[in-house]
Amino acid sequence: MDRETRAFAESHFRRLRGRPAGGVGATPGRVDFIESPDSFSYADFFKGYLLPNVPCVFSSSFTEGWGSRRRWVTPGGKPAFEHLLRNYGDVVVPVANCGVREYNSNPKEHMLLRDYISYWKDYIQGGYSSPRGCLYLKDWHLCRSPFHADIFRSFSWSVNICGRKRWFFFPPGQEEALRDCHGGLPYDVTSPALLDGRLYPMRKHCSPPLELTQEAGEMVFVPSGWHHQVHNLEDTISINHNWVNGCNLANMWHFLQQELRAVQQEVSQWRDTMPDWDHHCQVIMRSCSGINFEEFYHFLKIIAERRLLLLTKELGSGDMEGSAGRGLGPQQAAFDVSRIAEVLASVVAHPDFQRVDTSVFSLQPGELLQQLEEVVAATASL
Description:
Elements (H helix, E strand, L loop, with lengths): L2 H14 L15 E3 L7 H9 L5 E3 L8 H5 L9 H8 L3 E6 L10 E5 H13 L9 E3 L7 E4 L6 E8 L2 E6 L39 E5 L4 E4 L4 E6 L4 E7 L5 H18 L10 H13 L3 H25 L12 H20 L1 H4 L10 H15 L3
Helix pairs in contact: 1-9, 6-7, 8-9, 8-11, 9-11
């Protein structure tokens, strides 16, 4: 990140005035396709897609050097089963059954990759049918992915190593119009059941999804909080990655507050009779969401300490424009520190976080916030 991009980003968040950055001003009419790596910079991506929080697709030119695209795929563009068996056959993998629903997800089992590939070969030979149902290996989305938004309102990217996918995107907030009369989200947004106005009374208020077909080698950027569903159009292997940065950190915090409120509402009848009710709500939240307020603080602390270490070195050298190559640069670190400081200030002021026992923390939240605010002030004009 250069100084101009950092100034652009900080101006963007000042305009938000503390509101979550998950929404989009106007839903784009299409998903942009980024053709050439030579004419597209990180600053272009940051300003054009991360900050406005809209999806895009990168061409296969961005991944043509990936070893997985050479080794995991046959010359005909199909999964290279023999290579996968030789290198990963004894790996235990989680596999979900797409034909069975448990609430809004699929039950999972564990098996060796070689057993899964044996099933996959039989499934293909059986005309894409099996008495065992349609099984898919976790993180290699080999069938339809149920309608969802990515974990913790993270960003994500998904690269097709081979195969093709059809994507359906709904911008943040649109999913509310897809809820059924009981408040649940649909498992499949293409199901004819959504046409039933009694079951889905708000469906008529939902705009059509953004749709795209992802080809082999292409990378889809999935913005924060965008609900989406994916259909595989043929045998497909994909690599996916989720991440949080300064652009969507506040979205993650907003999501966690919503998760805690949902837990508190579910167990509200025991508030006056259950000892340590607030603590139990945090325990339940962690069980349901994978993280609670205490762990979110430690998540912020780890990132903050790394950014502060880098900035301390840069401030000592007086070189805030020093190049870090493909790594984290000082301007990016300064931007991240400013975003962490804003989110941490909200965390520290939150009544439910104030009920968390922080006495054993190695660094008290207020002390960390003070350190961050001092560095924000020191780097504001650099």
